[in-house]
Amino acid sequence: MVEGGYNFQLRDLPSVSSLLDDKALSALATGLGLTSADIKCSAEAVLNIFRSDRVEDGEPLSEAALRELVVDAIAGSLRHMALRKLQPVINATGIIVHTNLGRSPLGERLLDAVRPVLTGYSNLEYELETGRRGKRGAEIERLLCALSGAEGALLVNNNAGAVFLILHALCAGREVVISRGELIQIGGGFRIPDIIAESGAILREVGTTNQTHLADYESALNENTAAIMKAHRSNFEMVGFVAEAGVEELAPVARASGVLLIEDIGAATLMAEAEANKLDLPHPAPSLRAGADLVCFSADKALGLTQGGIILGQRELTERLRKSPLYRVLRPDKSLLSVIEAGLSLIAAGEADAIPVNALLRTEPDDLKNRAFVLARKLRKAGLSVEVIETEAEVGGGVAGRRVASYAVAMSAEGSSPEDIARALRQNRPAVLAIVREDRLLLDLRAVLPEQDGVLLKVVLAAARAGDS
């Protein structure tokens, strides 16, 4: 609507029922994956706006002209609604574990494994052997211990919850010693100092932003110290004149002082440790062997599963956490448990690549290069200006600075900026998320699932045609 509204007779506004029968709106809604209920919602909102913005000066609109304006406004509302709805996208950003895109894709194998459990009843808290009430997540905890070497394990609904539970249950009212260089903030405003304060523990900062030594921790310990805490830098790196004390150095000090050593590693894999080392991915086993009492990390980052917070360490401590009233608030539901159990079972069976993140990480660059050349050849046939370039993708998801070799198709279009092309790709179905770099649009194939190549081609061609028109 134009500023100031339109002059029209209220009786000339189309009815909601007539708008629901409008063939153009119905066709648009179907194409966008929306329903008649969505049309009704948009129609009611648009009609209310027209009523409230109506003016009484200027040339009055005819009934036909008014209807056309209303239908156009509803169409715009439906397009906006479709873009807000949760929907699949193709990730051509070159970030494998992309926080804004749902982090880790689960893939068909995992969904096939959990479908029978989720579509019916399950023995979530029932012992089939005894016929009595059982403990949820028992098999997951066994798998976690077997894959990590931990004595005990506990699963909660996310890693922020894991950190909060540990601090609240084990450190409330006492000091937690942490380096100033690890008082981090990650996405969504999650700040370590705030979490410590909210948990009831007392923050004790040591060292400086870039230099924290063992002696800094030692001088801070006192009779009111509950724990030394290490926190990962999930989304940034520190380089240059930097020093920090690792778990290996801190464990003897914590043990001698009778305080806990807690490490939030943020992102970790549970594939074979040797494989994790080859891929330069964090694994909890080294920290546990070095003497960390508790280690926690996210299940939907480098592990490649769904949202969850994994706590590993001394059995006596994980059992204390389980008995905390707060655990009831944070405990996982059947959907989270079923996906994580299925994923851990695949890893334990040596089938880690059935989890998409692992397969994407281990795809050979030559495979990506071949796929990129195939895509580029087809786009050139359609008249687009493209070239294949070598690039670097990011692991993402809390593994700061970890990059892997990749290949991308670089696009340019006469008369359209890279931002214009990116916008057109985002507004297609499915949406394609790409990168703009050095005045070119890049489609990085590292995080594009191989089965999506055909759909990616169609969307790019459709966006190019829309730009031409």
**Cα Rg:** 27 Å
> How many strands in all?
16
Counting helices, strands and paired strands, the structural category is alpha/beta
- For this structure, the CATH topology of the largest domain is Aspartate Aminotransferase, domain 2
Tell me what you see in this structure:
This protein is of the alpha/beta class and 469 residues long. 44% of the residues lie in helices and 19% in strands. It is built from 19 helices and 16 strands. It has helices spanning 16-20, 23-31, 36-53, 63-84, 107-118, 138-148, 159-171, 192-199, 214-220, 247-257, 273-278, 284-290, 315-323, 325-330, 334-348, 356-362, 365-381, 418-426, 453-468, and strands spanning 89-91, 95-97, 152-156, 175-179, 185-186, 190-191, 202-206, 225-231, 260-267, 294-298, 309-313, 385-396, 399-412, 431-433, 435-437, 440-444. It is globular, with a radius of gyration of 27 Å. The chain starts with 15 loop residues before the first helix and ends with a helix.
Task: Give a quick set of tags describing it.
19 helices, about 20% strand, Aspartate Aminotransferase, domain 2, alpha/beta, 16 strands, Aspartate Aminotransferase, domain 1
Topology, pairings included?
Elements: H1 16-20, H2 23-31, H3 36-53, H4 63-84, E1 89-91, E2 95-97, H5 107-118, H6 138-148, E3 152-156, H7 159-171, E4 175-179, E5 185-186, E6 190-191, H8 192-199, E7 202-206, H9 214-220, E8 225-231, H10 247-257, E9 260-267, H11 273-278, H12 284-290, E10 294-298, E11 309-313, H13 315-323, H14 325-330, H15 334-348, H16 356-362, H17 365-381, E12 385-396, E13 399-412, H18 418-426, E14 431-433, E15 435-437, E16 440-444, H19 453-468
Parallel strand pairs: 1-14, 2-12, 4-7, 4-8, 8-9, 9-10
Antiparallel strand pairs: 3-11, 5-6, 10-11, 12-13, 13-16, 15-16
